[in-house]
Amino acid sequence: MSPNDKAGDTSGAEYGGGAAAPGDSSPRTPTGTHPPASHRNVAAPTITTDVPARLDRLPWSRWHWMVVVGLGTVWILDGLEVTVVGNIAGRLSEHGSGLPISSAQVTGVAAALYVAGACLGALFFGRLTDLFGRKKLFLITLAVYLAATALTAVSFSSWWFFLFRFLTGFGIGGEYAAINSAIDELIPSAYRGRVDLVINGSFWLGAIGGSLLSIVMLDTDIFPMNLGWRLTFALGVVLGLVILLVRRSVPESPRWLFIHGRGDEADRLVTSIEKQITNEKGERLPEPEGEITIHPRKSIGFLEIGRTVFSRYRRRAILGLALFIGQAFLYNAVTFGFGAILTSFFDVSTSHTGYFFAVMAAGNFLGPLLLGKLFDTVGRRIMISGTYLLSGVLLFATAWLFAAGHLTATTLTACWCVVLFFASAGASSAYLTVSEIFPMETRAMAIAFFYAIGTAAGGISGPLVFAELTESGVAADTALAFCIGAALMCLAGLTAAFLAVRAERCSLESIASPLSTAPDT
Q: Which of 390, 415, 436 is closest to 182 using CA atoms?
């Protein structure tokens, strides 16, 4: 029995054929009966290939680790960026920092511009990623990030700082679209869930590093006041350059190549990967099962992308929106106000909030790390809905304890660690979900759209609502902000319980047939 024969499955058909998934209005085309072949031209411009099946049946290898390090570690930089800026806000506003800016401008204007840049960068580079390939764009977006971060480090005026915070976000937003699409197309289906979750969860490794780094860099006994904060940005550039060197070895997605008519190139690339893995393992690879026939197309128009995502796959679009908005509000509105809660309600010194945040960030990373495998074994629907619902319920409990005055800074941090252990796995699965449930030709654009909508909702409306409720200094008002985040997580969990696609161990082509799939093949 194939993975798609599970009762109640909504993932679609095997390699380009079969019945449509519930809620997806377009019928699937039947799978062809061609004899096994690595790749051949059937009738121009039709291409039949087994490249997807060959990639999915590969065992885990050093080559896959190279992909993970080259592509996935950029999330650490994102976590470092966000955390460092939050922690250095007070220092930047001090006389002698070398920058005429206020703390409110750093955490307000600069943060909003970073979020706006990330949203626009995701949409801009997401479209280019689908048009020109994964590799070109994941090199370009990292270069944009590096240049913008380096220029942030030499800021001499507030307008310069604002401009390059926007461009740093612009590059990071592009990374989300280019990297998630490339990773899902290169990682075997049996490992796709856990790898995607751990990579997206590695944001919190950067957050831990940013928290601890800011403690050292802002120590005026070690670095002058106008130098320490600049060196934190410079370190991000150094780490980015190391990632760029590794990333140059990551190839183009073979799936993107054959969809764009470069089938021979895709075949040679997969053959090279197979040879490396065979030499490493010392044994023959299993035979691939299934092939797909497509009509190559250079590009897909915006109208067709829109119809595909919001009409043909409308249930999946609802799922993506629910997951992204829920997790984005929780993280942008609640957790990033964690320092303000500690200082306002528990009299924790601003110089010590980094320690509490580092502990909380560790809980965030452990969730995807320890629960990730279950998304490939227990399954997407149970794990996505379960992590969202459980984190929402636990957050409601935390809100009640906080409002009743039963928590200290330490116990509140412990509660947040437990809540975010599950919430982080759920949030990471949102990126996994939208990157695997839409057709190949729309993948990067779909990731970009849902990321932009979720980030805008959580990064703009969330902090505004949260700030309004917490500035009063009344515990009940802050608890209400917790409850809003908890309610959105529970709502997303219920949506996933009904609409989540059972994509575990399934090929991407079986979850959503490419738009270029040839009919009657």
A: 436
Question: Cβ(238)–Cβ(110) under 8 Å?
Answer: no
- 3-state SS assignment for residue 246: helix
> What does the pLDDT look like over 199-230, one tens digit per residue?
988 888 888 887 777 777 777 778 887 888 88
364 and 207 Cβ atoms separated by less than 8 Å: yes
Q: Which two tokens stand for residue 412?
A: 């509140």
In angstroms, the CA 201 to CA 157 distance is 34
Phi, psi angles (nearest 5°) of residue 408: -110, 180
Determine phi and psi for 244, rounding to 5 degrees: -60, -40
Q: What's the rounded Cα separation, in Å, for the pair 90 and 338?
A: 15
C-alpha 153/C-alpha 357 separation (Å) is 24
Q: For residues 466 and 328, give the distance between their C-alpha atoms in angstroms, rounded to a whole number.
A: 13
- Dump the DSSP string for 356-408: HHHHHHHHHHHHHHHHHHHHHHT-HHHHHHHHHHHHHHHHHHHHHHHHTT---
Distance between CA atoms of residues 218 and 83, nearest Å: 13
Per DSSP bridges, beta strands 292-294 and 46-49 are antiparallel
Closest CA to 5 of 430, 502, 520, 519: 502
Distance, CA of 356 to CA of 410 (rounded, Å): 8
CA dist., res. 482 & res. 335, Å (int): 10
Other CB atoms within a 10 A radius of the CB of residue 446 amount to 29
157: amino acid identity, one letter = S
Secondary structure string (H, E, C) spanning 257-281: HHHCCCHHHHHHHHHHHHHHHHHHH
Provide the pLDDT confidence category of residue 271 given band limits of 50, 70 and 90.
very high
DSSP conformation class of 248: T
pTM of the shown model: 0.83
Question: What are the tokens at 477?
Answer: 């008002």
Tell me if residue 299 falls in helix, strand or coil.
coil
Please give the single-letter amino acid code of residue 179: I
Between residues 226 and 438, the one the model is more confident about: 438
Whether the CB-CB separation of 229 and 217 falls below 8 Å is answered with yes
CA–CA separation, 112 and 314 (whole Å): 30
Report, in this order, helix, strand and coil percent for the chain, each rounded to 5: 70, 0, 25
On the question of pLDDT at 79 being above 90, the answer is no
Cβ atoms of 438 and 308 within 8 Å: the answer is yes
Report residue 87 as tokens.
């922690």
Torsion over CA of 55, 61, 65 and 71, rounded to 10 degrees?
Answer: -10
